[in-house]
Protein backbone atom coordinates (compact mmCIF):
# COMPACT_ATOMS: atom_id res chain seq x y z
CA UNK A 1 0.00 0.00 0.00
CA UNK A 2 1.18 3.52 -0.75
CA UNK A 3 0.13 4.64 2.75
CA UNK A 4 2.85 2.35 4.15
CA UNK A 5 5.47 4.42 2.29
CA UNK A 6 4.57 7.71 4.02
CA UNK A 7 5.79 8.73 7.47
CA UNK A 8 2.91 9.05 9.92
CA UNK A 9 2.50 8.98 13.70
CA UNK A 10 3.72 5.79 15.42
CA UNK A 11 5.48 4.35 12.35
CA UNK A 12 9.06 3.18 12.66
CA UNK A 13 11.33 5.18 10.38
CA UNK A 14 14.96 4.43 9.62
CA UNK A 15 16.84 7.55 8.54
CA UNK A 16 20.36 8.46 7.47
CA UNK A 17 21.78 11.86 8.33
CA UNK A 18 24.14 13.72 5.99
CA UNK A 19 27.12 12.66 8.14
CA UNK A 20 26.27 8.99 7.47
CA UNK A 21 24.81 8.17 10.89
CA UNK A 22 21.67 6.03 10.78
CA UNK A 23 18.90 6.07 13.36
CA UNK A 24 15.62 4.23 13.94
CA UNK A 25 12.93 6.63 15.17
CA UNK A 26 9.23 6.57 15.96
CA UNK A 27 7.24 9.82 15.60
CA UNK A 28 4.84 10.17 18.56
CA UNK A 29 2.60 12.86 20.03
CA UNK A 30 4.00 12.79 23.56
CA UNK A 31 7.02 10.57 24.18
CA UNK A 32 6.43 9.00 27.61
CA UNK A 33 9.89 7.41 27.81
CA UNK A 34 12.97 6.63 25.78
CA UNK A 35 13.29 3.12 24.34
CA UNK A 36 16.71 1.49 24.11
CA UNK A 37 16.42 0.48 20.44
CA UNK A 38 14.18 3.25 19.05
CA UNK A 39 14.44 7.02 19.54
CA UNK A 40 11.01 8.50 20.25
CA UNK A 41 10.65 11.86 18.49
CA UNK A 42 7.86 14.29 19.33
CA UNK A 43 5.77 15.19 16.27
CA UNK A 44 6.37 18.89 17.07
CA UNK A 45 10.18 18.54 17.29
CA UNK A 46 12.18 19.70 14.25
CA UNK A 47 12.91 16.13 13.09
CA UNK A 48 9.31 15.03 13.71
CA UNK A 49 7.90 17.94 11.72
CA UNK A 50 10.41 17.32 8.93
CA UNK A 51 9.59 13.62 8.54
CA UNK A 52 5.79 13.60 8.84
CA UNK A 53 4.08 13.19 5.47
CA UNK A 54 7.26 12.41 3.54
CA UNK A 55 7.94 9.21 1.61
CA UNK A 56 10.49 6.47 1.40
CA UNK A 57 13.70 7.61 -0.29
CA UNK A 58 13.09 11.33 0.19
CA UNK A 59 15.90 13.60 1.38
CA UNK A 60 14.59 16.32 3.67
CA UNK A 61 16.23 19.49 4.96
CA UNK A 62 15.26 20.95 8.32
CA UNK A 63 16.73 23.40 10.83
CA UNK A 64 17.75 22.89 14.43
CA UNK A 65 18.63 26.19 16.09
CA UNK A 66 19.54 27.76 12.74
CA UNK A 67 21.73 24.78 11.74
CA UNK A 68 20.56 23.08 8.55
CA UNK A 69 20.33 19.30 8.73
CA UNK A 70 19.62 16.74 6.01
CA UNK A 71 18.05 13.36 6.53
CA UNK A 72 17.09 10.62 4.07
CA UNK A 73 14.22 8.19 4.73
CA UNK A 74 15.60 4.66 4.30
CA UNK A 75 12.77 2.52 5.65
CA UNK A 76 9.21 2.92 6.96
CA UNK A 77 7.47 0.18 8.97
List the helices and strands and how they pair.
Elements: E1 12-17, E2 22-28, E3 39-42, H1 46-51, E4 59-64, E5 67-76
Parallel strand pairs: 2-3
Antiparallel strand pairs: 1-2, 1-5, 4-5
Question: Biggest sheet, open or closed, and with what strands and sense?
Answer: 5 strands, mixed
Low-confidence stretches: none
Number of separate domains: 1
User: Which structural class do the helices and strands define?
Assistant: mainly beta
Would you report the number of β strands? 5
Distance between the termini: 12 Å
Percentage of residues assigned to helices: under 10%
CATH classification class = Alpha Beta
Strand content: 35-45%
3D structure, described in words:
The protein is mainly β and 77 residues long. The chain has one domain: Roll (Chitinase A, domain 3), CATH 3.10.50. Helix content is 8%, strand content 43%. It has one helix at 46-51; strands spanning 12-17, 22-28, 39-42, 59-64, 67-76. Strands 3-2-1-5-4 form a five-stranded mixed β-sheet.
Descriptors for this entry?
single chain; 77 residues; mainly beta; Chitinase A, domain 3; 5-stranded mixed sheet; 8% helix
Amino acid sequence: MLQDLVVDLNKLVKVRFSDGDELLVRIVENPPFQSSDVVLVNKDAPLGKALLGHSLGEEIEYCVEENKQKVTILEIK
